[in-house]
Amino acid sequence: MTISGLVALCLFTALTLALGYANKARCTGPLFDEWGRSEPAYQQRAYGDVCYSDIQNLWIGRDIDRHVFPYVHGGINADGSLFGGVVEYPVLTGVLIWAGALFAHTDAGFLAASAVLMAPFGFAVTWWLGRLSGWRALLWALSPPLVLYAFHNWDLPVVACAVGAVFVVHRWRSASLRRRATAAALLLGLGFALKLYPAFFALPLALYVLTEGRDGARRFDVRGALQVVGVTAGTAVLANLPFMLAGFGGWLASFEFQSRRQVDISTNSIWYWGFRHWTDSEGFQSAMGVVSPLLVLLSFAVACAVGWLRYERTGTYPWIQVSAAMLCGFLLLHKVHSPQYTLWLLPFFVLVSVRWGWVVAYLVADSAMGISIFRWLYLNMAGQPSGISDGFTSQALMIGVWGRAALLVGLFVAFLAARSTVDKFGSVARSDTRLTRRSGTPVR
User: Fold this and answer.
1) Tell me, what's the pLDDT at 440?
2) Which interval of the chain is the signal sequence (predicted)?
3) pTM (2 decimals)?
4) For the chain, percent helix, then strand, then coil, each to nearest 5?
5) Cα separation of 126 and 139, whole Å?
6) Cα–Cα distance for residue pair 66/334, rounded to 1 Å
């Protein structure tokens, strides 16, 4: 893609991000209480006007408004509440949160500063997707999820790590796949220290490196594969180590908070909507702590195994497609499925050539869920009827939740069967001739 095309993509992204910020900023002000919380009726407006964001909401309750540096002096109480600056996110996200609040005195200022901090990551994703997949990057730059969720939580930086890893592997001008994959592994490790999920992709990337061999030789590059896994893990450890040393209890509290998290309305997963009449049961909650992660790991194993079968047929391990399928398994089966997780999946609609029907259907279902969930919460807060037969809000919510779940199952299969869009737009020099000799067709 030409530079002018990439600039145009970034201009479209700027428009979308501006709309996203304007949507969330509707919840701020015009008055503020002594803690800098927007008034009047902040919570009712956030739900009723569908302008809620975790960024604004968490201004109070995590010592963010007090500008406390995260993790060092805090911990978790017996009731599961955090104190002393601890936030429920990995350490690099905690630092971003602290930086966004540094000069803010109200939730409005915090939202604005956080948007300024994160917007460059949104542009980076656009630029890299444009370089990787051409104009298909408009699926990111002009997408409804970017309006709904760009500044809902702190997800743009972690999406940039995941997309940056793909960019490094397929566009960095180095003849050595091992070197490119090692640089990508570093980004995946940083992604772990932001929101965990990019580290999942180290496994398919390692299998991709393993099966490419070295110097055109028809053998497995075991050392390169282990290097990918080791660099990802090592980067994640090094990012966490200063916080572990400075305040181990506060650092551990963020992980303990997530492990204790109950399946409830805040998790918004199929486990809540499918079994919400059981969520008061201690046995159910304990079972979810085991069943959910086991099923997620099983989905990972299936995705990697199908990828291997495809490698044996085509000569190339489809690591991007396998990564996309793994993410679908995680989003479907994990006990938490926050609305903004759609931003994690969105780049794979650009990077993998699934049918447009899948993309449109998912965006429609996601928008139905992402809008109606807050209207539904507002109805509950106001004491108004909110059953499935009481109006369109509840019906749209169920369509969104279960439509999205069904589509994730379908996308898991569709991603594994699809071709990557990356090589269609050119790639760095690689051992394509070796693949042609080995399999007859250098399929990507």
Assistant:
1) 40
2) none
3) 0.93
4) 70, 0, 30
5) 10
6) 33
